[in-house]
Amino acid sequence: MTGNKKIEKDAILAKVKSKAGDQARRNAIADDIKAVHSLGYFDDVAVDYESGVLTFSVKERPTIVKIDFEGNDQISNKDLQDVIKLKEYSILDVNKVKEDISLIQKHYEEKGFYLARVSYETKPTAKPDEVELIYRVSDFDKVRIKKITFLNNHSFSDDRLKGVLRNTKEGNFFSWISSSGNFKESAFKQDLQILTYFYLNEGYVKFRYEQPIVTVSEDKKWLFVSIYVDEGQRYNVGEIDFSGDLLYDKKELGEATQMTTGQIFSIQKRNDDIQRLTEKYQDLGYAFVNVNPKMNIHDDSRTVDIRYDFEKGNLTHFGEINVLGNSKTRDKVIRRELRIREGELYNGTRLRVSRERVERLGYFAPGEVVFNSVTRKDKKDVVDIEINVKERSTGTVTVGMGYGSIQKFFLTTQIAEINLFGRGQNLSLAGQYASDRVSRSLSLGFTEPYLFDSLWSAGVDVFLVSFPIPNKYLEFKDGFDFKFGHPLEDDLYVYTTYKFEHLTLDQINYSVDPNLQVGDDVGNMSSVGVSFVRDKRNNRFETSKGNYESVSTELAGVGANKNFAKFIGEGRFYHPITEDLTFRTKLEIGHTLKTTDKNVPPSEKFYLGGPNNLKGYDTFTVSPKDAADIPLGGASELLYIAELEIPLIKEAGVKMVFFYDMGNSYATFHDLVNVTSLKKDVGFGFRWFSPIGPLRFEWGFPIKPVGNEGNVVFNFFIGPPF
Question: Which residue range is the domain that position 374 belongs to?
Fold first, then answer.
């Protein structure tokens, strides 16, 4: 070995397969030359064979002693150094230099500098085996998409198709904050696939597009994107059939599919049907069933026949179940949500339900709960399950400010942790302070969802509240409650609650009413309650689909002098419109009534208005009122909320919300049927999902305000919507 100065001889010879004593063969020597050259350290490799000695002569590439950048006015040297893979004092490899140029180019593109161009040169130094590497950049100014134009689109407007593109958007007012308007070639190619998928979902099975044209304005500040499409005709579903390893009769398989003959063909619905059919076979233990859709397109009738062909494979059992990625959350917290067990026959439905239950915990980032089925090499009929999770912050800080006619300006705050010490326990501390200096509250709560590793849940709350009843007195209330729950089904729970409160009064105002009677308003309140909850939300933190319903009843008077009954029914519904859009609604109805001749305590009545219900009205102002326009609290309530959140700056977590609220608090239950008296408001706001929680800035506009009701109410709140 000759010519090697920096590279050790043994490191080179390790790539040579020819050995002393071998017969010299031309092909073998040629392979050795290629192997040595593949090390990337040499510009030239030659071989000389004389008198039985095989001599390799190499010419080493120079060492890079310095890497520099020139012309990069828009991005710093340090930023570019982090992008490239070559480092100082590594061997100069032209192929790796070209790879770095591609990385720099891509980095500029992601930052919005679509016109940036990168080249390189090497500069000799005083030593012949050392060079300086210089990347030369022509970065120009940031260029954004000015206009996206679709050509030959007859079925859908340009605006509709622009909305389909997920990453490629026209520049707007917020482009300086987000990457909106940036052109990224890789992302644009993905968007073209999404566009194709959109048309296939709408029945255009022969949709095509030509190579898009991207042009630059003369001032090199704007891009214009033109996309020519060939939509073709819309096709309907023709005949649906099944073949292969049929374990069910065709009628039962047909009932499991969503698409039917005569419907507009949809690739998404077809894929959903494949998943449904796959799961039916997996429920019988055939984990690796293959459902192959074979489509026959009829241009004359514009229909698509679909035949699902089944290859059932072998029966499979669950093997080991392993949890990965949970640095904080304990294994048992995840495993107790599973509906599969090691050694059982494979079941697709129970596997899916297990994943949904783990997602619903809210401890992990959305979309970051992945169940992988891994076949054992030694046992093809055993499948190990790997559960990969990515944990998220489960602690929240909620802060809210508002104004009410009773408390005036007030501040509320809550600190909560729903996965305490990784055990799945819930701890919260909440408080409220008002500028009237008398309206205050403090509460501490703890919940153990699996008491002693059983299916029972248990919780305890302690609280202290002071609240002024206008023109009467200041009410003090302290107490505690215990709550126990048990599942009736996977998504249905029953809870029983016992609550005790001690009520005292201060600052009794006899000047307004010398005959004011307060005897019934002091003493103890002891109540028991039962509630039923069905929770089918996909995530407790960032719900995008599913529903939540609860019905509860509370009966007071057990060993105390406060006697009343209270009923509340609530439903929340989440409808995904697109991947980024969710339409959510909430309906709530409540009623409280006295069960003896004693009145219901004012604090147990219903007051509406504020950031969590009627956002166009001041906090606690919507209820029956006395002659002085002071809220008295209602015996019944009806509330409806509808919201639509629209991503505004997706990268920064900023959304715009539009809402409609409707409801009222009534003196009697019979007034609920008087829908003409419902208070209504509309409004909009901005929500920033920040590290400390969702920051909500919302403006509510009451519809037909009366009396002292204003024309607009601004609410600032830190905390999630319903």
Answer: 317-391
